[in-house]
Amino acid sequence: MSGTFTIFDVRDVTVQPGGINTAFIGPKDLKMPFLPDAYKGTITELSWHLIAASDGTAAYEPRKAAEASVNAVRNSSCTAPMLNLPSRKGSMA
């Protein structure tokens, strides 16, 4: 994947064994030219592709996004590598 996309006012939700980490990406633009290798093969990568496909302009609903992430992890088809998500400084568990 190439290019840069912008996310506005999005709550970043990371589901991990033992809890959910969440952080608010503020009103300023967040531009990321690439996905860090640490996120490859995780739910974050799936979210990245979904956002990129919508050019970062979709209307996001944090509650629905969080529910979708939790349901994806609870799904028995999830594999261990999907749960191996990097921790975020300042997150809540």
UniProtKB/TrEMBL annotation:
Note the superkingdom of the native organism.
Eukaryota
Protein name (database record): Uncharacterized protein
Biological source species? Cladophialophora yegresii CBS 114405
